Amino acid sequence: MPAEIREYQHGRLKMIRHLVFDGWKLMAGEVQTQYAVSTPTGEPLALFDPTGKRVWRRPKQSLYGLRLGGHGENPQLDPGLRFAGQLFDEESGLFYNRFRYYLPEATCYLSPDPTGLWGGENTYRYVQNPTKFIDPLGLAGENVFMHYTNKADFDGIMKSGVLHPNVSGKVYITDVLMSPKDVMRDLLINNPNHIGRGDYAIIFKIDPGERGNIRSPSRLEYTHEGKLKLNNILYAGKNPYAILEHLDYDTRLKLTDNQVKIRKCGGK
């Protein structure tokens, strides 16, 4: 007499057992196993069956765990594991982390760290950087900004190591990662004189003494009075956020808004 036992956890299929009985005696059994390929933090990237065939792949996601565009292949096989120690809760859309929940859209927890200030000054953030820093390469920290430009100006800046002010004596910088299209649309207001100004990015950390020279005239931009010397460049090259230009504008705008919300979760 054959039997199939399906085991579920939080509404997700975890295991299938195939059993064959002769009366009350178990004659044969089979367990369906998948093998995971994971990130260094333990988050599964893909599942493979015993023959080596990929049966599930994690969809693309933002730096802070927000899934981008669809559920990927065979979503029923998604193990539900997210960042280290987190389990996806389908009912709420939050990441369960034993003592509290993590919200990927805001990149921070919904309740403070139960250990208090032992966990850091910002009791809502996820580890050291995802809710405080704009850190696409894992190199950044506090007082990190970026300057978008075109190829010709990029070469000049890298040669001199200085951001020179405009005729008003100001250097424009931002702390928001944006695709080249969004730099043109949201920062440069589609000014035809600035075509290509979002193609290159210089991400840098300023000296603490320079912070007093920086003002925020708008939601997305900062200005620095006078020339700004680049002593600590973290990244320089083609705009790394160009990889998101295949997404529709509303989705990209949501990513921009999430970065602005980071400031409210204890960022700059």
From TrEMBL:
Domain of life: Bacteria
Coiled-coil ranges per UniProt: none
Protein name per its UniProtKB record: RHS repeat-associated core domain-containing protein
Native source species: Photorhabdus bodei
